[in-house]
Amino acid sequence: MQERFTVEYHIVGDENSALEQAKIIRLEQTVEVSDELVPPGLIRDQVIGQIEHFAALNSQLFTATISYAVDTTALELTQLLNVIFGNTSIKAGIRVHRIDLSPTLLRNFGGPRFGIAGLRKQLNVLEKPLLCTALKPMGKTPEQIAELAYLFALGGVDVIKDDHGLTNQSFCQFEQRVTLCAQAVQRANDKTGKNCVYAPHVTAPSTEIKARVTYAKQAGAGALLIAPGLTGFDTMRALAEDEQVNLPLISHPALLGSMVISPHNGLSHRVIFGQLQRVAGADASIYPNYGGRFGFSQAECQSIAQGCQESMGNYPAIFPTPGGGMELARVPELLQFYGDDVMFLIGGSLYSRSPDLVENAQYFLSLVGR
Amino acid sequence: MQERFTVEYHIVGDENSALEQAKIIRLEQTVEVSDELVPPGLIRDQVIGQIEHFAALNSQLFTATISYAVDTTALELTQLLNVIFGNTSIKAGIRVHRIDLSPTLLRNFGGPRFGIAGLRKQLNVLEKPLLCTALKPMGKTPEQIAELAYLFALGGVDVIKDDHGLTNQSFCQFEQRVTLCAQAVQRANDKTGKNCVYAPHVTAPSTEIKARVTYAKQAGAGALLIAPGLTGFDTMRALAEDEQVNLPLISHPALLGSMVISPHNGLSHRVIFGQLQRVAGADASIYPNYGGRFGFSQAECQSIAQGCQESMGNYPAIFPTPGGGMELARVPELLQFYGDDVMFLIGGSLYSRSPDLVENAQYFLSLVGR
User: How far apart are CA B265 and CA B268, in angstroms?
Assistant: First the structure.
């Protein structure tokens, strides 16, 4: 039980109360008994968390880095999340700021199968940002959705995903939509010579997701869209590690907002939209960019991009995929902010610029020098 | 597409901005395009959300009830969560206060298989509160854990659950622990004539949970503990609806704290620990009681108890299961607060009162008149 990994928590309070909270987290996240009930020996020496570092960030905010034995996680992603924050999530004023997994954990979870390099290779776009868009709105028929997919692929959109609200509604059933969209994108690729991919949304009941993924694969989907906040992170991990799936995973933030939105509670943007996405095998992580319809700050978006790309064992870097109401006019600014290794998710603005969706997509590509 | 269900959101802001947010939620949760891009006809008339009620709670907090077409959910729990709060979860100052599902949705999800009446029948405890405890701490061997289970069952604890940190650690493997604990509780029941049950923790990777549940069932587990915040709510739903499982489900709040802890973001205590638990088939919902180690208020706990027990289609009421550092001395107060239809989860205090765990459990039962 020697190997340990660490979690950095930010704790609100004065120094004494924050340190007291850190001491409690050690126990709450492992043995869940008070200090006097912790047996001596292995449990006290290794099972409980250990405070490795404690310091002030300001007079009312402290950082505590706590290490846990890898063995407490049982090498399960569900239990890893449990050790990181299970019970402590219920306490106000404590936030998971970052995680630092150990070699055994990083080897245990396969991580992103494609990453930036793999996805670029599949799309045959070896430099400059990628462009992603969403097929919408909900309420259109599969034929109408597929027609949009065709036009966007003709215009050169790299990843054409279902809107995340499309699953298997009676008015737009999964199998019909996926078949038609995959065919439409293939038809466009045949004309353009490009490798645009269609990414159907496979978030589904736990009992049905495997069948949807299998169907999507055989129908010709080139990637998959999934929302781990709806399915659980481990469901995405299982898809990423499944040899038979072997498709890039685009992760959608649905419902995950509730875990990051309050600055001193929950988990940080870096952890939720960066680090955990990679542990769970996403190749691209969608989140709302600063200055769009949602309220993330520049610093939060920067931390997400870092979480997607900073060194993390042998995991490849993945695409930060900012979306959430970005205007085409902002592309130059965002290029400067994110650099070239980014996938821009542009929905509404790619529909509304002009009625010619092909030209809209081409215009976007010209903005990033493609 | 006639049938609709409703979600009540609480929105921070002045009246104009809150109403504007409500109008945006209608779109964000369905078509995800701006109003001018919503096509006329079916999509505008039925697919987008409709504001059914809007009113002030105070000058800076408003309530908006929005209805959605049942068809937008595809009758999937994952997609229901998506429609309720997928993207809007990423906005600060908007909270899901309660949900009101429609008949079709309530019939579609099986709900709690046992509920209060069913669990009472199984345990043969037809009145007065139930007692639940946790086997801990992590780090003990399966033999040591089973010995605790034996003593608690001998003392008459109704539901003896794994601590939620126990899964399949190398030092306390699932199969060995479950076998020994189920046998230990059976041995005690043979002596006492009671029907105490052992509830192993089956939270596991999505690819392994079925095997664990099957093992637990054949080993004699009388209930199951699962943490939907770690597995996703739909995984619990699938267990509840599975005829072959057919065991009461005790739901643990791990990680769900991040979604409720900030008062004006995320989802309410009533929704997360009451209403959604029932939709997803829990028979008992564990949460930290007011005045323990965690910070829930009396009003929040009351709303959870209501969410567990108020009328909801044909779903049975389920046990609110307050825990999180409750002292035995508080039982009289809590009896008054919750009434008889409650399951008290008492961990540390049942271990620390005296070294005689059997007597501690008996003492607890005497406090509730059993």
Answer: 8
